[in-house]
Every structure is written in structure tokens, then in C-alpha cells.
Specification:
- This protein has 114 residues and is mainly α.
- The chain has one domain: Arc Repressor Mutant, subunit A (Orthogonal Bundle).
- The chain contains 5 helices and 3 strands; from the N terminus they run H-H-H-H-H-E-E-E.
- Helix 1 crosses helix 2, helix 1 crosses helix 5 and helix 2 packs across helix 5.
Length: 114
């Protein structure tokens, strides 16, 4: 459950304004990294790596995580959804303009890279 919580927080703070498909894609990047030997093998370590994800203080996360918060409920759903891989194996995402990696696709307002 802790791993899903960390993915949900990353989804919430990175993409809560995105369509559901975009939120699934951000969650997928976290899971893809967690499953690749180049990154830590726990999602909480993946999302807390310096400079990798939007900086969000976990100490304040509980303020956003109220059950009545629909954006947080959606983030948990996106973090828990593992039936398909929407990003073709992406390890990175950014707003348009990042060209250091192999471009895969655009979902919502993010471009996905490997």
C-alpha cells in the first residue's frame, strides 16, 4: 500500500489537472522506473529522487489526501491501475521541449520519453 501511496502522490502533484489517461501515464513512468535496475526498487525512493519529479513535501501531503478530494481519489485509481502500459515503456515525461531522450508519444500535456 505504501508504494501505491507514493505513486498516487506523484500522480496528484504532477498531473492532477490532466485527463485520466495522462494520470495513468505518469503513474506508469513511476512503475517503469521502479521495475528497471537503473532506478531504486521502491516507488517512494523513485519519486523522491532529487530533480526527478515535482518537488512535493510529504509532510504536507495529508492536507491534500482527504477522502472527499476527487483529484486524490483519481490519483489513487491511476496509481493502482496496472492492467495496461499506456506509455510504451517510458521512463521520463515532461512538458513539451525535452529532447534528450527518445520521444515516444504525447498524452495530455506531457511528452513521454525512453
Amino acid at each position: 500500500m505504501l508504494e501505491i501511496l507514493c505513486v498516487a502522490l506523484a500522480v496528484y502533484f504532477e498531473s492532477r489537472g490532466e485527463p485520466l489517461e495522462g494520470q495513468y501515464a505518469v503513474a506508469s513512468v513511476v512503475w517503469n522506473r521502479r521495475n528497471d535496475p537503473r532506478w531504486p526498487n521502491h516507488t517512494c525512493e523513485v519519486v523522491s529522487e532529487e530533480g526527478q519529479f515535482e518537488s512535493w513535501p510529504l509532510i504536507y501531503a495529508h492536507l491534500e489526501m482527504q477522502p472527499e478530494n476527487p483529484a486524490m481519489r483519481t490519483a489513487f485509481a491511476a496509481a493502482s491501475f496496472t492492467a495496461s502500459e499506456p506509455t510504451s515503456g517510458a521512463f521520463f515525461f515532461a512538458t513539451p521541449g525535452l529532447h534528450n531522450y527518445e520521444y515516444l508519444e504525447t498524452i495530455g500535456n506531457h511528452e513521454f520519453f525512453r
